[in-house]
């Protein structure tokens, strides 16, 4: 059974930094594209970033230059480094996993339970 | 970015009803479309990918259709467990984007 567990959320002041982690189990090491998707309180889903097998990355315009996604395939962990945080980054951040390589389509069969990031002074 | 517009935003229906939700893309996305169901306080769950392929384990009362810019999610006979919010997602081109959601409520 695939399990994704996010950690690292919390309360942070505007302008601060935070690193989220997503530990994956039950999936082949490094063989799935992995993403972060966020959901502001009471709002819809917003795609944030993706990292592919091999390390290629893409970002939403709203976080480009401030957030960085990375992966440690030996430990099956995906990270999201968030810098220059703003109030409108407040959201539940979900780790989401794609199907097994070579399917690199873009949909997400696997989701974590989410971790809340609150940016407030 | 490609904009995804769902309609309606809210839908009131009864158990046993046939329900249809539409999703329109601002430009053609071929069949690179997924549908998700989300219940309050829970993560989304994949229902459909490639516009019409049912994810393993998802009940057959869910079906998807469409290509290009217009897509539909149909629930053939609404069940009590189906009351939730549904989202479409395009993955044809970056940035991948979700629709704003359709909440299915009990009538």
The DSSP helix count of chain A reads 0
Structural class of chain A: mainly beta
Distance between the termini of chain B: 35 Å
Quaternary organization: heterodimer
| Global outline of chain A | globular
Q: How confident is the prediction overall: mean pLDDT of chain B?
A: 97
Return the string of H and E elements of chain A. Answer: EEEEEEEEEEE
Number of helical regions of chain B: 0
Structural class of chain B: mainly beta
Bin the helical content of chain B: under 10%
Quick one: overall form of chain B? globular
Distance between the termini of chain A: 40 Å
Low-pLDDT runs of 5+ residues of chain B are none
Strand content of chain B: over 45%
The number of E-state strands of chain A comes to: 11
Order of H and E elements of chain B: EEEEEEEEEEE
User: Main beta sheet of chain A, described?
Assistant: 7 strands, mixed
Main interface pair? Answer: A-B, 20 and 25 residues
Task: Sum up the structure in keywords.
heterodimer; A: 121 residues; mainly beta; seven-stranded mixed sheet; four-stranded antiparallel sheet; 11 strands; B: 107 residues; 0% helix
Q: Can you walk me through this structure?
A:
The complex is a heterodimer of chains A (121) and B (107). Chain A has 121 residues and is mainly β. Chain A is built from no helices and 11 strands. Chain A starts with a strand and ends with a strand. Chain B is an all-beta fold and 107 residues long. In chain B, 0% of the residues lie in helices and 50% in strands. The model of chain B has no long low-confidence stretch (mean pLDDT 97). The interface between A and B is medium-sized, with 20 and 25 residues.
Short description:
The complex is a heterodimer of chains A (about 120) and B (about 110). Chain A is an all-beta fold and about 120 residues long. Chain A has strands at about 5, 10, 20-25, 30-40, 45-50, 55-60, 65-70, 75-80, 90-100, 110, 115-120.
What are the SSEs and their pairings?
The complex is a heterodimer of chains A (121) and B (107).
Chain A lengths: L2 E5 L2 E3 L5 E8 L6 E8 L5 E7 L5 E3 L7 E6 L4 E6 L8 E10 L9 E2 L3 E5 L2
Parallel strand pairs in A: 2-11
Antiparallel strand pairs in A: 1-3, 3-8, 4-5, 4-9, 5-6, 7-8, 9-10, 9-11
Chain B lengths: L3 E4 L2 E4 L5 E7 L7 E6 L6 E5 L3 E2 L7 E6 L2 E6 L9 E6 L6 E2 L3 E5 L1
Parallel strand pairs in B: 2-11
Antiparallel strand pairs in B: 1-3, 3-8, 4-5, 4-9, 5-6, 7-8, 9-10, 9-11
């Amino acid at each position: 059974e695939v399990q994704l567990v996010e950690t690292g959320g919390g309360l942070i002041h505007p302008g601060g930094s935070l690193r989220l982690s997503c530990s994956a189990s039950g999936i082949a090491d490094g063989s799935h594209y992995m993403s972060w998707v966020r959901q502001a309180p009471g709002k819809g889903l917003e795609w944030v970033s993706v990292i592919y097998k091999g390390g290629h990355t893409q970002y939403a315009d709203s976080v480009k230059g401030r957030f960085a996604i990375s992966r440690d395939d030996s430990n099956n962990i995906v990270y999201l480094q968030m810098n220059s945080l703003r109030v409108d980054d407040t959201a539940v951040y979900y780790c989401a996993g794609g199907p097994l390589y070579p399917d690199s389509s873009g949909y997400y069969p696997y989701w974590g339970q989410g971790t809340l990031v609150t940016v407030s002074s | 970015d490609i904009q995804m517009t769902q309609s309606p935003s809210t839908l009131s229906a009864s158990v046993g009803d046939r329900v249809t939700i539409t999703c329109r893309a601002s430009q053609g996305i071929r069949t690179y479309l997924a549908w998700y169901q989300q219940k309050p306080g829970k993560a989304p769950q994949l229902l459909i990918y490639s516009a019409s392929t049912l994810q393993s384990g998802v009940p057959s009362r869910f079906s998807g259709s469409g290509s290009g810019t217009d897509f539909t999610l149909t629930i053939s006979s609404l069940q009590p467990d189906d009351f939730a919010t549904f989202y479409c997602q395009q993955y044809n081109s970056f940035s991948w984007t979700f629709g704003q959601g359709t909440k299915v409520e009990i009538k």
